[in-house]
Each structure stands twice: as structure tokens, then as C-alpha cells.
Design goal:
Blueprint: E1 2-9, E2 12-17, E3 20-25, H1 29-35, E4 42-48, H2 56-67, E5 71-73, H3 78-97, H4 108-128, E6 134-138, H5 145-152, E7 157-162, H6 169-172, H7 178-185, E8 190-193, H8 196-210, E9 214-215, E10 218-221, E11 224-230, H9 237-241, H10 247-260, E12 264-271, H11 278-291, E13 299-306, H12 313-333, E14 341-344, H13 350-359, E15 362-365, H14 374-382, E16 389-393, E17 406-408, H15 413-425, H16 428-442, H17 447-469, H18 475-487, E18 491-495, H19 515-525, E19 530-535, H20 540-547, E20 553-556, E21 561-564, E22 567-570, H21 579-591, E23 596-599, E24 603-607, H22 613-633, E25 636-641, E26 644-649, H23 654-664, E27 669-674, H24 679-685, E28 691-695, E29 704-706, H25 712-721, H26 733-751
Parallel strand pairs: 1-4, 1-6, 4-5, 6-7, 7-8, 8-11, 12-13, 12-15, 13-14, 15-16, 16-17, 18-19, 18-27, 19-20, 27-28, 28-29
Antiparallel strand pairs: 2-3, 9-10, 10-11, 20-21, 21-22, 23-24, 24-26, 25-26
Helix pairs in contact: 3-4, 4-5, 7-8, 10-13, 11-12, 11-15, 17-26, 19-25, 21-22, 23-24
């Protein structure tokens, strides 16, 4: 069993050297963090090697060298790299996710290249992976990849982690390709984000764009669970915490102390990017010098900026503004013995960087928006017997964990100035206390714990999906059910209507039975051994109007009415609806566009199928909260079904009607099919031997599952007439059939 980490870039990059290549470590926290993972599985990487190579011989040379390290390269042309990486990834997705809409560029060629490169990754993965392997996809450059892999390899274990912010729905909806990106991510078993805010925004986008409903942190799609969670990424804590004890780092520490002499040192470390708040930070520092002249000549800001995309127009413009601002501050305040801003426009080695962390009195980590920001964590981890102060943007993901930092709004330059002053004035004891608290968190929430937590929850989802997929009705299971059906002499067939016999309509009155439905019911009732019951929440007048001419029995309004031998019977009295309940329901109709109220004989139903998914769920929760005390007083039951909230008498359910039927007769074959949460009452009321089928989402109360309502009629037709079974297998079915049977037997033994 192997773990394949799939990222835009490999942990090492190929660097041309005359007629050959050398290989050096890649920049970036992602590659560094993931490469240091300590896991039991054999670890492989798939990604771009950092260089565009068209020559086949050179590609072979690079591949052969990298594969000795279990690295598998994806080769891109210059045009592909530009349009996929610098184009769609960093000129479309990156600025939008960081709330820089004005920098977002939408171009057809960017999107086409993004699709093609994701497909190249898919091809390479399919060549490499085997049965039982795990594929962990990293970040926004590969958002389509989980869905592509799921289509090619439906049983593959796929995880995805999003390392940058996920924006609110109002921003994300701007993307023309929003549905394709979300469908791509939903191909994963487990999706991770750094913070609960990003997780919440993603769920909201999926519900509103794809109309896939989440139950807390899980959604079902194609009879498969997709789980989402927030898992903040950590660092290799011991590496940074022990760094000052190494001779090389200590040598660098001594050099830095000589360089900055007696000055208080403020440190900032960033990639060149408009999301990092570099200009705001400089303006805040300038404001600090203006307000506190006593610190002039005593405080130096060391600004480390690592070059990044500086040939892109927006980044080149930012670089120019940074240079101008630093020049202005230094020109205004510097003297022969002091330069306010020391500017380093290059990357630092690990030893140089950790030495800077160690000697810095204050770290300014003030991005305007950041997925996590590991610099803040690295600074805190490095401070051993030499405390300092972390000034941290509340817009960085790290702010959730590092509550003992001085947290500021990075857009407010006055706050930055005040935070610098507060940090410089902070007593040594308080600095040590704050650093100690943050180190206690970081020493536990390491990069390895992040990976282990991700893998454990991912495995939990995979195990759950394997169990649920065992419930999926396959051709083999249908043959077994058909055999039981054929052998039986007395059969009870219980069928829900909406979502089972017919598909849902935005207007419930439009869900009239199709000719196919009528024919299936005729075929079933033509066998005298069958007692067919339509067990529905619909009102009895509608059921009579649509299906009353057929020799079927009915249970309407969740058992409040039933029809047998051509006669309707009422099991629940018609309530006098209180004006307060009607007023609340009508108020929710008025304030929820496209919702409607249905008044039945024994129930009230507030439908919101046509309502925006987010608003509908919000209003449904609000409505239940508004009704609960009144309904308790009147001994009424509130049912939350599929896009409907119903109020009814508490003594009638689909389950109570089943119990009535079972008291009247004995059946040696029982089939029940339904799609709604209210159908669980029916499933629970039946004996363990019954064939219970949940349509759509999987239910613990049903033995089997059908993916779609469109599979229901073919299944019933196959039972009634012996027509060919048209339900396709979902792979590995023999073992899964055995698994679900064993699980069912265990439940039966436990209950006995």
C-alpha cells in the first residue's frame, strides 16, 4: 500500500547545468512540510519538476533520476505552464480566493490549459497507482483532479487539501467554471481546509451551486460520502525549536547580532505577493516612527521578500511600489548610523532564516488574507530562552491557533503602528508567557500530527463508504431478491410516491404519474399474491385523483388516511389549526420567495424545493424553532422531509400504517421503497427479513440503496414481469454484498 502525494511541484526541482541537470530543494512551506512527513506507508510524489523540458532525452534523464527518490515528474511545455500555472491558477483562482477580485483575470485559454494539465496529472496517476493505494492531492492548482480520477477509478481512495483560503459564496460564484471546480473537489472522499471558515464557505458554495445537501460535515453524492473538515497545518516543530543549538545556526545568530547591533529588530518574511500586506506593513512602520520619535535610530525593520512571479504585471508593479516606499522611509529617517528598513530581496537558507527568527524582537506577520502562514509558527517555535513578540494578522489562518499573539486588522495601518509600540513595550515576563503558551500548542499540532489526523479521518470516510457501497443494489443482489420474490406466496409491497415512483418537481402538483408508473403498478397488481400499498405523505384526494382507478391500497398523509378494498378510512381526526401556527407558516411563505404552504386534511406542509438552498435550509431551521413550543402544546409532530416541513398529529406515521398492515395479515415477502427521512419510520417498523430500499442517500434503517429514483421503476418492472435487470454493479460487488449481509446479521444478533 502506497501513499501518492500529488502537488503542482515536487519537493526537488531540476536546474539546468550545461548539458545536464542538478537537483535542489524546492521553495515553499507545502513542499517542505509534506516532505518531512513520517508515515508508515511507502511515500511517492507526483508533480512538476520545476523546469519546462521538450527534449525527450532530457525528460528521460530527469525522470530516471527523480524516480530513484520515488518522485514521478509531470512535464509541461512553456505555454502550458504559463496558462495553467501563471494563468488560471495564479491569475484567476489565487486572487479570487484571497479576495482580490480586481486582480482576477478570466480567459478561455487559461481555463482550457488548466483542464488539460489536470488531465495530464490524472493520466500519470492512473499509470502509477495500484489497488489499495491512496492519492492525496494538494491545493488549488489541481481542483479538477479528484473528479477526473473518480471517473477513471471509482474505487480509488482520494483525499484533497486546500492550502489557501476558500472564499465566500458571493465571490466564488463569480467564476464561470464554479460548478466544474466544485464537482472536481467532490470527487474526493475527504476534503481538508485550514480553518472552519473556509470549510463553511465551501459547504455553502456546494449547496448553492451544485444543490448537494450537507448533513453537518458530510454530503452524499452517487451513494458515496464526501466529508469536509478543518485541519490546521503545523510545522516540523522540533526542527525549528532545536535549530539554535546547531553550530551553523548559532554562527549565523552571532553574525546577525553584529549586523543589527543594539537595535530592536522587527522581522517580516514574505513571498512577493499582494495578499501579504507588505505595503500596509511599511506604512504602519512609518506611522510608528512618526508617532514615536524616541524609537528613531533604535528600531530596524528587516524585511525579507522572496521573489515570486515578479515578471507578472501586477507583481512587478507591487515590487516597484515596495521599492519606492522603502526608499521614501529610509530617505526620510535614516542617518549615517541607522537604516530604518533593511531590505532583502532574495530567499534565505534555513540557517540564516532561523537565525533571524531567533534574534528578532518582534515578528510582523500581517497578510491581508492567508490560508495559514507558517512563518508565524516557525518564528514562535524558534524562540528558545529568548522570547519575542508575534504581531499577527487576524486574516491569517494561523490566528485561530495563536491567540496569544498581538492580533491586528492588517488593513488598519494605525493598528499596525500601535501593535509595534505595544510589542516593544511588552515586559520580558509577558513575552515569555505568551511564547510558552503558543509553543505548547505548536509542539502538539505539528505537521506530522496534521498528516496523521488527515489520514485517520480519510480512512474513516473510506471505511464508511465501503460499508455503504455494500448496500448499493447490484445485479447480483437483485437476482437474489428476485428469487425470494418468485418463491413467495404472499407479498406486501410498500412504495413511497414522490422521489420513488416519480421524480421531484419544483411544484408538487406537477408530479403526476407517468405512463411508466401506471404500467408498473398494473403489472405488480396483476399478480394476486401481491398487496401493493402507496405509503405517501400526499393528501388522499390527490392520490385518489391520480391513482384511484388502480387496484392498489393507499396510506395518505403519513397514515392519517388509508384505503383498502376501494374505501377510504380516517385514522386521525381533522385538527383545528390554531391561528398562531397558520400565522407563522404564512409569515415564512411571505419572507421566503418561491416557498408555498399546502393545507392537507390532517397536516400542514411548508414546501421550499424551489427556494435557494441556503435560504431554504435557514428558513426551515427558523420555522422549526418558531413552531416547536406551539406544537408541543397542541401535541403535534414536526416532520422535516426532503425540502418540506410538515406539522401533523403525532399518532400517525408511515410506520404506524405498516404496523396496522402487519397485524392484519402474514406475508412471506415484504418490499419497502422510499427516499425520504419519513420513510425511515416505515423501514424501522418492518421485520429484519424485509427488503428495505432507500433511494438516493443511504439510510442506516434500510438494508439496501438505489443511487437514483430512475432506478426504482426498472427494479419493480424486473420483479413484476421478469424484465432484464438494468441496475449496474458498482465494482467489487461480491465482497461488498457479503459485507452488507454480515453487517445485517450482526445487527440481527445484537437486537436478539
Amino acid at each position: 500500500m502506497k501513499l501518492y502525494i500529488v502537488a503542482n511541484r515536487l519537493p526537488v526541482k531540476a536546474v539546468p547545468r550545461q548539458d545536464s541537470y542538478t537537483f535542489v530543494r524546492s521553495e515553499g512551506g507545502l513542499a517542505t512540510g509534506l516532505d518531512s512527513l513520517q508515515i508508515s506507508m511507502e511515500k511517492h510524489w507526483i508533480g512538476w519538476p520545476g523546469v519546462c523540458v521538450d527534449n525527450a532525452r532530457q525528460q528521460i534523464e530527469i525522470r530516471q533520476h527523480l524516480e530513484t527518490m520515488d518522485f514521478h515528474p509531470i512535464f509541461l511545455s512553456e505555454e502550458q505552464y504559463h496558462d495553467y500555472y501563471e494563468g488560471y491558477s495564479n491569475s484567476t483562482i489565487w486572487p479570487l480566493c484571497h479576495y482580490f477580485f480586481s486582480h482576477t483575470t478570466v480567459r478561455k485559454e487559461y481555463w482550457e490549459s488548466y483542464q488539460k494539465v489536470n488531465a495530464l496529472f490524472c493520466e500519470e496517476i492512473c499509470k502509477q497507482v495500484g489497488s489499495g493505494d491512496w492519492v492525496w492531492i494538494q491545493d488549488y492548482q489541481l481542483m479538477l483532479l479528484p473528479g477526473m480520477l473518480r471517473k477513471r477509478m471509482p474505487n480509488l481512495h482520494i483525499g484533497y487539501f486546500h492550502h489557501i483560503p476558500f472564499p465566500s459564496y458571493e465571490l466564488f460564484r463569480i467564476l464561470p467554471e464554479r460548478a466544474e471546480l466544485l464537482n472536481g473537489l467532490m470527487g474526493a472522499d475527504f476534503i481538508g481546509f485550514h480553518t472552519h471558515d473556509y470549510m463553511r464557505y465551501f459547504i455553502n458554495a456546494v449547496e448553492r451551486v451544485l444543490h448537494i445537501k450537507f448533513d453537518l460535515d458530510e454530503a452524499q453524492t452517487d451513494s458515496r460520502i464526501v466529508r469536509v473538515n478543518a485541519l490546521p497545518m503545523g510545522i516540523n516543530y522540533e526542527l525549528y525549536n532545536h535549530s539554535s543549538a546547531t553550530p551553523k545556526v548559532w554562527s549565523e545568530i552571532e553574525k546577525k547580532r553584529i549586523l543589527f547591533r543594539n537595535h530592536k529588530l522587527l522581522l517580516s518574511v514574505d513571498r512577493l505577493d499582494y495578499s501579504k500586506g507588505i505595503l500596509h506593513r511599511l506604512q504602519g512602520f512609518e506611522t510608528f516612527l512618526e508617532r514615536h520619535p524616541e524609537y528613531q535610530g533604535k528600531v530596524t525593520l528587516a524585511m525579507v521578500i522572496v521573489p515570486s512571479r515578479d515578471h507578472v504585471e501586477s507583481y512587478a508593479g507591487l515590487k516597484t511600489k515596495i521599492d519606492e516606499t522603502i526608499g521614501r522611509i529610509n530617505g526620510r529617517y535614516s542617518d549615517i548610523n541607522w537604516t530604518p528598513v533593511c531590505y532583502f530581496y532574495h530567499g534565505f537558507s534555513f540557517e540564516e532564516l532561523t537565525a533571524m527568527y531567533f534574534v528578532a524582537d518582534v515578528a510582523l506577520v500581517t497578510p491581508l488574507r492567508d490560508g495559514m502562514n507558517l512563518v508565524a509558527k516557525e518564528y514562535v517555535a524558534t524562540k528558545v530562552n529568548n522570547p519575542g513578540v508575534l504581531v499577527l494578522s487576524e486574516m491569517a489562518g494561523a490566528a485561530v491557533e495563536l491567540a496569544d499573539a498581538i492580533q491586528i486588522n492588517p488593513n488598519d495601518t494605525d493598528q499596525i503602528a500601535d501593535a509595534i509600540f505595544t510589542a516593544l513595550q511588552m515586559p520580558y515576563e509577558e513575552q515569555a508567557k505568551r511564547i510558552s503558551k503558543m509553543q505548547a500548542i505548536l509542539s502538539v499540532q505539528t505537521v506530522n500530527k496534521w498528516a496523521v489526523d488527515f489520514m485517520e479521518e480519510w480512512k474513516n470516510v473510506v471505511d464508511k463508504n465501503q460499508y455503504l457501497s455494500g448496500k448499493l443494489l447490484s445485479t447480483n443482489l437483485l437476482k437474489q431478491i428476485k428469487a425470494l420474490y418468485t418463491q413467495a406466496r404472499s407479498r406486501l409491497i410498500l412504495l413511497d410516491y414522490d422521489g420513488t415512483l416519480v421524480g421531484f418537481q419544483k411544484r408538487p402538483e406537477d408530479a403526476v404519474p407517468t405512463p411508466e408508473v401506471i404500467q408498473v403498478l398494473k403489472d405488480l397488481t396483476s399478480d394476486p399474491a401481491n398487496h401493493v400499498v402507496i405509503n405517501s405523505g400526499r393528501d388522499h384526494q390527490t392520490l385518489e385523483k391520480w391513482l384511484g382507478g388502480l387496484p392498489v391500497s393507499f396510506a395518505a398523509e403519513h397514515g392519517a388516511y388509508y384505503k383498502e378494498n376501494g374505501e377510504w378510512h380516517q385514522t386521525s381526526y381533522k385538527p383545528e389549526w390554531s391561528q398562531s401556527i397558520l400565522s407563522i407558516l404564512n409569515m415564512f411563505v411571505h419572507k421566503t420567495p418561491k416557498s408555498r404552504l399546502e393545507i392537507k386534511e390532517t397536516a400542514l406542509a411548508w414546501h421550499y424545493r424551489a427556494v435557494d438552498s441556503w435560504l431554504g435550509e435557514l428558513r426551515a431551521r427558523q420555522l422549526v424553532r418558531a413552531l416547536v413550543s406551539i406544537c408541543l402544546q397542541h401535541r403535534l409532530q414536526i416532520l422535516q422531509g426532503n425540502k418540506v416541513v410538515e406539522i401533523k398529529q403525532s399518532n400517525c406515521t408511515k410506520g404506524s400504517e405498516v404496523k396496522r398492515l402487519l397485524r392484519k395479515a402474514h406475508y412471506d415477502f415484504i418490499l419497502a421503497m422510499g427516499d425520504d427521512t419519513t420513510d425511515n419510520d416505515m423501514f424501522r417498523a418492518l421485520p429484519e427479513s424485509a427488503v428495505t430500499v432507500k433511494i438516493g442517500t443511504v439510510s442506516e434503517d434500510a438494508r439496501y440503496n438505489l443511487k437514483s429514483q430512475t432506478d426504482a421503476l426498472p427494479m419493480l418492472q424486473a420483479l413484476a414481469t421478469g424484465a432484464p435487470l438494468r441496475i449496474s454493479s458498482n465494482g467489487k460487488q461480491g465482497r461488498q454484498d457479503l459485507g452488507v449481509i454480515l453487517h445485517w446479521m450482526k445487527k440481527l444478533i445484537k437486537r436478539k
